[in-house]
Design brief:
By secondary structure, the chain is of the alpha/beta class. It is about 30% helix and about 25% strand. It has helices at about 30-35, 35-50, 85-95, 130-150, 150-155, 175-195, 210-220, 245-250, 260-280, 305-315, 360-365, 455-460, 470-475; strands spanning about 1-15, 25, 55, 65-70, 75-80, 100-105, 120, 125, 160, 200-205, 235-240, 285-290, 325, 370-380, 385-390, 395-400, 425-430, 440-445, 480-490, 495-500, 505-515. The strands form four sheets. It has a nine-stranded mixed β-sheet, with helices on one face. An eight-stranded parallel β-sheet has the order 2-3-6-9-10-11-12-13, covered by helices on one side. Strand 10, helix 7 and strand 11 form a beta-alpha-beta unit. The longest helix has 20 residues, at about 260-280. The protein starts with a strand and ends with a strand.
């Protein structure tokens, strides 16, 4: 297929915010203390990808020992005592490398839990508190301790998200009303300490409950105060194009439509806008989890098509969200047990031993985009193909991707994609609006053979536990490949034409720098 694009770098269509750089998802906070490599991965995320916040499940999980019971013999009763030592060690390390916490308030500590239902290999308790007064006391003391240790100005920059995916029974042993009650008590507790602290929810799967949540926060009785309304600074939700599997209960993984993210983000943006206009309050929108598949053993996470999926998804939600937290940065992740292989289909951008995946390089390309959005169009554009143009000072950037839609199921890897919908194309870009000058042109590529440690791992025989020699080979193939460099490109009549192939499951980044 021949495709023609047009870009005019004189035609700015607005500023361009790198909203996806706000943060990333991670394994539970305790891993920061247990696994040294995860902090190295965090540092890469900050330094190379521009991430600013980290979100993880389980800040109140039992492995952190935040609360424990003793018996007060003098008063003949049990008393809860708090231990902040582990939390301090975690947050100290996170802050030292330039990150801030996006605090997910979960799971229920055993001394406060009303039941024994858990999730994950490490048994996070998903039940409600047996006593809401005790839960509020925990939250109150937690927030006050953070302020005492890190200062009010610092903690005001953090976010406090109530629970995780309460619309899934595997994550929350309660109803929607139960969640709203938990939210009310938590939000009121936080706001009594300082009204500028940021609190929100519902942190739901498949973008659910946003309408019901905002209706409750603005128009319904608060379970804690018995007055109308509950504090809310942001809404949060999650999405995976395989979410349908969780709702139907089927074992087979089913993929939703290619415009999944575009439609869901638009729908929730419209809901939020309605309440903003009605009540005159700004409400931030944070997608605090997203990926191509909710399965932590899905090889689709590893290949170059994942890089195309990332680019497509980021621009499908543009203007509809304030942040877009990729789940996750690192494969050091054991919700379903420790990874059994270097490449195993994990959520991360980086393998357990620090090998960067094609997905990592997609975020590296995104990081290289400028801060001014430029009008760019493709005639008769297929939905698989995308283009973005930006500029910053004397640099001009073009990003293109070619995505292959997946098919349902967990069959052999070579049967994961709908190859009938794969598009091989020759691309021609007509560029206008450049100054007549000398330029350096750089072209970067992610595909099966470039910027692709997963392909190299397959060539090595798929070693589950690579030797140091094999890891060195993998790391030699993991960086973003510069495939074309022209330091003497002259532009005349303010125009330039570029031609190249854009193969399926690939991403191309072109930079022009005026000399």
């Amino acid at each position: 297929m021949d495709l023609n694009a047009k870009i005019n770098f004189k035609n700015e269509i607005g500023s361009f915010t790198h909203f996806w750089e706000m943060g990333f998802g991670s394994e539970r906070p305790f891993m920061v203390l247990r696994e040294e490599n995860i902090l190295e991965h965090y540092k890469l995320g900050v330094e190379e990808l521009g991430f600013k916040y980290v979100r993880a499940h389980g800040i109140f999980h039992d492995d952190i020992n935040v609360i424990f019971e003793i018996f007060d013999w003098q008063n003949n009763k049990k008393v809860n005592l708090y231990n902040w030592r582990t939390i301090d060690a975690i947050y100290d390390k996170i802050l030292q490398i330039g990150l801030k916490p996006f605090v997910e308030l979960s799971f229920m500590p055993r001394p406060l839990a009303s039941g024994d239902k858990t999730i994950f290999y490490w048994n996070g308790n998903i039940t409600l508190p047996k006593d809401f007064a005790e839960w509020c006391d925990l939250v109150n003391n937690f927030i006050k301790h953070l302020i005492d240790r890190y200062g009010l100005d610092e903690v005001r920059q953090w976010y406090f998200e109530v629970w995780n995916e309460p619309n899934l029974t595997c994550f929350f042993d309660g109803s929607q009303e139960d969640y709203f009650k938990l939210y009310d008590y938590t939000a009121i507790t936080i706001k009594k300490i300082d009204n500028q602290l940021k609190v929100g929810g519902p942190s739901t799967a498949k973008g659910g409950w946003i309408e019901a949540f905002l209706k409750h926060c603005f128009e319904e009785e608060n379970y804690a105060t018995k007055e109308i309304g509950s504090p809310v600074d942001f809404v949060s939700y999650h999405g995976y194009p395989t979410d349908v599997a969780f709702y139907t209960g089927v074992e087979k993984i089913n993929f939703e439509e290619i415009d999944y993210w575009q439609q869901m983000s638009k729908m929730n943006k419209e809901i939020v806008k309605k309440y903003e206009e009605k009540y005159g309050k700004k409400i931030e929108i944070h997608v605090t989890e997203w990926n191509s598949s909710a399965n932590v053993r899905d090889l689709r996470h590893e290949d170059s098509n994942q890089a195309a999926f990332i680019c497509k998804s980021v621009f499908d939600v543009e203007n509809n969200v304030d942040s877009f937290y990729y789940w996750t940065l690192s494969d050091i992740f054991e919700e379903m047990g420790w990874p059994d292989s270097e490449f195993h289909g994990g959520f991360g951008l980086i393998t357990i031993n620090g090998v960067k995946k094609p997905a990592y390089n997609a975020f590296k390309m995104l990081r290289m985009l400028g801060n001014k959005r430029i009008d760019a169009s493709i005639k008769d554009k297929p939905e698989n193909i995308g283009i973005v143009a930006t500029k910053e000072e004397n640099k001009y950037q073009i990003l293109l991707w070619n995505y292959i839609p997946p098919i349902s199921g967990m069959e052999e890897y070579d049967k994961l994609y709908d190859m009938d919908k794969a598009i091989n194309c020759k691309f021609s870009i007509e560029i206008d609006g450049l100054e007549n000058s000398k330029y350096t042109l750089k072209k970067y590529l992610i595909d099966d053979y470039h910027s692709n440690s997963f392909t190299k791992w397959n060539e090595l025989g798929k070693p589950k536990a690579p030797t140091q020699e094999q890891l060195d080979i993998l790391k030699q193939s993991m960086d973003l490949d510069l495939v074309s460099l022209n330091k003497g490109l002259f532009v005349n009549e303010n125009k330039l034409n570029l031609e190249f192939e854009l193969n399926p499951a690939s991403v191309v980044f072109i930079e022009l720098e005026k000399k």
